[in-house]
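Structure tokens please, single chain.
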Amino acid sequence: MASGSDSGLVPLAPDGSSDPTAAEMADVVERYYEVLDENNQGVIGMGENDTGATFAGIGEPTFRLDEICDAARIIHERRHGVPLRLVTTMLPADVGGADDVAQRIADARISDVTINLCAENPKAFQTCTDALVEQYTLENPNEAK
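Here you go.
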């Protein structure tokens, strides 16, 4: 598996970074709600029609848990009742501890979590996650416990 400059991929952002900041993620959510409001499709009543926002993507979002939690806090400062979801494999729980990861998600008021188990059986899943955790630990030695 190629990573970094060996992958042939290039950053999307002009400053060379490829991942959005917490503020940029929150701004996208805010703009979504502004467009709904502009088109008279905003949240009504107690928010029963509010589909909320989901943190997901190609790769494992919780490897950037600090940014996701910061974005969630910014979103809730701007729009208190927005339902937030996270789609994850929970790989960082293997690196930093499941209780810590779960508590941080709860503290950020991310109300729903979907855990993808992308393998045909538990052994295959463990084989895949072991390799990814090892790679992450090598690339981020200061974050591994």
